[in-house]
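Researcher: Quick test of sequence recovery. Tokens follow.
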């Protein structure tokens, strides 16, 4: 339950929320890119067998990539706009 309900406070909380959602989406993308780079390094630099690498990449990484992109897209296209809409609403009441 919110302890402070003033419009100014709620606007600040929502702005922080929006920032956190955007940062989380960016961090998630960056983390997965690093993961992909590390897996590629096992194959390209450390000699992981080609068959194992491509089986893993095709069987797991590609699917995981699609799912993570779906989460990132939902955050950016649905969650952030919802919070931004609430910020606009609160701002119009101040």
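Model:
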């Amino acid at each position: 339950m919110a302890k402070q309900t003033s419009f100014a406070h709620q606007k600040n909380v929502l702005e922080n929320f929006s920032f956190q959602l955007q940062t989380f989406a960016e961090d998630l993308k960056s983390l997965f890119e690093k993961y992909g780079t590390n897996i590629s390094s096992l194959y390209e630099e450390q000699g992981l067998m080609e068959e194992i690498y491509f089986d893993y990449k095709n069987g797991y990484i590609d699917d995981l990539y699609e799912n993570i992109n779906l989460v990132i897209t939902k955050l950016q296209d649905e969650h952030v706009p919802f919070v931004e809409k609430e910020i606009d609403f609160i701002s119009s009441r101040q």
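The chain has a mean pLDDT of 94.
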